[in-house]
Write a structure and sequence with these properties.
Layout lengths: L1 H31 L1 H13 L1 H13 L18 H16 L3 E7 L5 E6 L8 H5 L10 E4 L13 E9 L2 E10 L7 H32 L9 H18 L3 E8 L2 H8 L1 H18 L5 E6 L2 E7 L3 H16 L11 E7 L6 H17 L5 E3 L5 E3 L8
Parallel strand pairs: 9-10
Antiparallel strand pairs: 1-2, 1-5, 3-4, 4-5, 6-8, 6-9, 7-8, 10-11
């Protein structure tokens, strides 16, 4: 028994010694790059997926683990959150004016997060590829501003790929208004950061893929009721934090029960699928399209004021009028629209919009009831849109 205990103690001492050696190594390397030192400490203290073994050593040695920092990409499994925190972390590490993080998704689409600069309209990775499509480790760009330009424009950019097990996950691009801001030192720092955040991006992307399966309605391929509830809750919380607007537009097919009764349920399913396709075609990139239940659908509209949402409704009306639905030809829908208020909850926002849909039905169907600027009804002729 004594021998076993001695072996355990010796093993524990070896583990602690190994952990201390790792810490010393980090400290030595940190003296070379003071700015990256603080970044590595934050990553080491917050990204559990990247430092479980080291934290275990620290805890077994009886030391107090570091306090969580404000940037913790490894502690989140929400892909948007991980990308946003990564962008902020990269900007802090390089003292950049802005950063864009782009991640490839399983379905071929790309998710983008931006810090300090607008999100790009096109994919970052495509713009950076060499003509021969050869693999690359970094890209540095320099812009010479037009002398006639007004303002302090972006002068330099540095891009590195995010990779894991030889798979390209995405790209991190840092921007600076200082010419020559990114040299070999900054490239090395950003490449090391890309290595460190890759496991968090992998985990978050997998989580997103699972959520997509759970949230997606099999018939219409838009988000289902669970996805709708999650989207409203998430965007409401973001809007309350940021103070930016949030609109919710519910649309309900008119006389859908009669369609099922006359043409049968398979035709009803075809109509629902075709209507969802019109919704997706009308939606903007930031809009979230959901099937709330039955023949009722929703647009969750982040950073959208009521007047802009009314214009979206007008475009949707036009698209529906131009669409020939399976077997039935033309169809109409009624809608309700509201904007987030200061003390709204998910329930109050949803309830208010549902009541507005009922008001539109009661007013004759094929119209919008809204509570923007005192409220009103937009009739079949689209009426005044302000």
């Amino acid at each position: 028994m004594g021998t076993t205990a001695a072996v355990i103690v010796a093993a524990a001492a070896a583990i602690v010694a190994f952990g201390l050696a790792m810490l010393v190594t980090l400290r030595v390397r940190a003296r070379i790059d003071r700015r990256l030192d603080s970044t590595l400490e934050r990553i080491g203290g917050s990204m559990e997926s990247l430092s479980q073994s080291l934290l275990a050593v620290v805890e077994r040695a009886g030391e107090t683990p570091p306090e969580p920092q404000s940037i913790e990409p490894g502690l989140s499994i929400d892909l948007d959150d991980v990308m946003a925190r990564t962008a902020e972390l990269a900007a802090t590490t390089l003292r950049a004016d802005g950063v864009v993080v782009e991640v490839r998704l399983a379905d071929g689409d790309r998710a983008t997060a931006a810090f300090g600069v607008p999100a790009p309209l096109a994919t970052v990775e495509t713009a950076l590829e060499a003509p021969d499509r050869a693999a690359w480790q970094a890209v540095r760009l320099e812009w010479s501003p037009d002398p006639r330009a007004v303002g302090n424009s972006v002068r330099a950019a540095l891009a590195v790929p995010v990779e894991r097990d030889s798979e390209r996950l995405g790209t991190i691009v840092a921007y600076s208004r200082v010419a020559g801001a990114f040299a070999a030192e900054e490239e090395d720092a950003l490449r090391r950061l890309a290595v460190d955040v890759a496991p968090a991006i992998v985990n978050a992307r997998r989580h997103t893929e699972v959520l997509e399966l759970v949230r997606t309605d099999r018939l219409t391929h838009v988000w289902n009721r669970a996805g709708y509830d999650d989207a409203v809750q998430l965007e409401l919380a973001r809007a309350h934090r940021s103070g930016r607007p949030l609109a919710l537009l519910l649309v309900d097919l008119d006389d859908f029960g009669a369609i099922n009764k006359r043409y049968g349920l398979p035709t009803g399913d075809d109509v629902l699928a075709a209507f969802a396709e019109v919704l997706r075609r009308t939606a903007r990139l930031t809009d979230i399209v959901c099937r709330r239940g039955g023949e009722e659908f929703a647009f969750v509209l982040p950073e959208t004021a009521c007047t802009e949402a009314i214009r979206l409704y007008a475009r949707l009306r036009t698209e529906v009028e131009l669409t020939e639905f399976p077997e039935i030809g033309q169809m109409t829908f009624s809608a309700g629209l509201t904007e987030l208020r200061q003390h709204d909850t998910v329930r109050s926002l949803d309830d208010r919009t549902s009541r507005l849909v009922n008001d539109a039905k009661a007013a004759g169907k094929n119209r919008l009831s809204h509570d923007c600027n005192g409220g009103g009804i937009v009739g079949p002729d689209l009426g005044p849109l302000q």
